[in-house]
Design brief:
Layout lengths: L1 H21 L22 H8 L2 E5 L2 E2 L3 E3 L5 E2 L1 H12 L7 E5 L5 H6 L5 E2 L7 H4 L2 E10 L1 E6 L18 E4 L3 H6 L6 H4 E4 L2 H10 L4 E5 H10 L4 E3 L7 E8 L3 H17 L1 H7 L19
Parallel strand pairs: 1-5, 1-6, 9-10, 9-11
Antiparallel strand pairs: 2-3, 3-4, 7-13, 8-11, 8-12
Helix pairs in contact: 3-10, 3-11
């Protein structure tokens, strides 16, 4: 009888140890599907997101090569892959990302209002936007260009709009829309604005406008999908450094993202993200841009 009691106690102890091991939530143990508990400063955005094991990210849903909804129903592209690199460093599994569509005109709003935790959406860093939000990065430098119909020989660059006869399309709230205003003769009659570049592309194809202007890499994405219809007209005429948008005063989060970007430059994950997405359209990646730790 005594031997049976000893055996029972030993078995119970073994079971308890086994359960404790299974329930261990140490820093190296997953907190979910692909999640990882990490140590971050108390009260930081990084700590909050890691504990929640969830994150909301704003991106474009209509940008070939950068952020475009695929057959999976989720966005795909370089911006998306860069965001995933940041999410991995936070210890959050990819399936816990909630992707929120963030067209140009609402990008600052969704950050300020807390709708998303960050925005990665072909987001040019500039001083006007810094009045409302902050940027980590840049992680890529694009340049504004013009897309026209394949058989168009009349438009060769931004100066082609100076005669006041040609219409050009861009997106409300975008840097290209503001830049092209410097080159048209009459903004009211020549500049056509939509909320997405897909609508600009359709307007060009349908003959409602003569050109579309935005960053070269976005246009190259459209051209790659329909080379028989479109081409670029001339060379890039601006520099557009893309950054990750976060809340204005969240310096710690911005520094964390900058550290993550620099790590991605050195470990090859940044280049792989490009090669797997926008790099397929023929655009050049170039050297990693220096992050701006302002």
């Amino acid at each position: 009888m005594r031997m049976k009691r000893v055996a029972a106690v030993a078995a119970a102890a073994t079971l308890a140890l086994g359960l404790a091991a299974c329930g261990d939530n140490g820093s190296d143990e997953g907190t979910g599907s692909g999640g990882e508990s990490k140590s971050f400063a108390a009260g930081s955005t990084m700590e909050r997101l890691n504990k929640a094991q969830a994150i909301k990210i704003g991106t474009k849903f209509d940008q070939p090569g950068f952020g475009q909804k695929g057959l999976s129903g989720k966005p795909e592209g370089f911006d998306v892959e860069v965001a995933k690199i940041i999410v991995k460093e936070l210890g959050i599994p990819e399936d816990k990302i909630e992707w929120v569509e963030a067209p140009s005109k609402v990008r600052e709003d969704v950050i300020v209002n807390g709708t998303v935790d960050l925005v990665a959406a072909t987001y040019t860093i500039n001083d006007k936007r810094k009045e409302r939000i902050a940027f980590a990065g840049p992680y890529y430098e694009a340049g504004q260009n013009i897309m026209v119909k394949k058989d168009d020989a009349a438009i060769t660059g931004p100066d082609s709009f100076a005669d006041g006869t040609k219409k050009v399309c861009s997106v409300t709230g975008s840097t290209p829309a503001e830049e092209i205003k410097k080159h048209v003769k009459d903004v009211a009659t020549q500049l056509v604005l939509f909320d997405t570049y897909d609508k600009c592309r359709d307007a060009l194809k349908g003959g409602q406008v003569d050109a579309v202007t935005t960053d070269n890499v976005i246009l190259l994405g459209y051209i790659a999908k329909d080379e028989a219809s479109f081409k670029l007209a001339g060379a890039n005429f601006t520099k557009e450094p893309y950054g990750i948008g976060v809340k204005k005063d969240d310096t710690d989060f911005r520094n964390f993202i900058n550290d993550t970007l620099e790590k991605a430059y050195s470990d090859g994950s940044w280049k792989k993200a490009w090669d797997d997405t926008a790099g397929k359209f023929g655009a050049e990646l170039g050297n990693p841009p220096a992050v701006n730790r302002y």
